Amino acid sequence: MAIRYWLVVQPLDRARELVAAGCVQVPWGARSPLDQMRVSDGVILYSPRVTNPDGEPLRAAVASGRVVSEAPRQWGNAARSPWRHDVDWLPDARVSSIRPLRDMLELTRDDRFWGERLRPGWVEISARDFDILTDAVRRPSPNPSGFMLRALRESGYPDVMPSGSRDDRPRLIR
């Protein structure tokens, strides 16, 4: 079965709780969306606000990970038992605004009302969008990822060449 990629909407405070717990949950703890997720599927947590319902607007990707559980499980107590999948989250992810990525993402490109598609709390996204959002939340490393180097080349950015310095990090030639 092919790997699929999901964007799940959660406020920042809830997203941080889910990352700390090593799991993902769609809003209201519904099971049906999680039944579509399989092991190795990619998951991005997107936070439109810092807190719900009236928190400060954020509109940012906040975490990226891969599903590691075979089936969703219930978690909680008798009063509230949301369904969750276990996820291996990227460590030390940073909050990354969606605004500078809007023209790159298939989800948002040429669609002023793309946020309306997020109302259910989860949406399937393309592998390309998953890679872009994962790069956005990943902490900077000494070397750019292969995906970003290819994206720079494809977008007509100047050639990317090895610097020849001691650390051998690629640099942009201007």
CATH class of the largest domain: Alpha Beta
Radius of gyration equals: 18 Å
| Integer average pLDDT | 86
- CATH architecture name of the largest domain: Roll
Instruction: List the domain count as a whole number.
Output: 2
DSSP, total strands: 10
Order of helices and strands: EHEHEEEEEEHHEE
Briefly note the CATH topology name of the largest domain: ph1033 like fold
Overall geometry comes to: globular
The count of helical stretches stands at 4
Q: How far is the N terminus from the C terminus?
A: 44 Å
Unreliable residue stretches? 161-167
Protein described:
The chain is α+β, with helices and mostly antiparallel strands and 174 residues long. The protein has two domains: 135 residues, ph1033 like fold (Roll), CATH 3.10.590; 34 residues, no CATH class. The protein has four helices and ten strands. The strands form two sheets. Strands 1, 2, 3, 4, 5, 6, 7 and 8 form an eight-stranded mixed β-sheet that branches. A two-stranded antiparallel sheet has the order 9-10. A hairpin with a 7-residue loop joins β9 and β10. About 4% of the residues have low confidence.
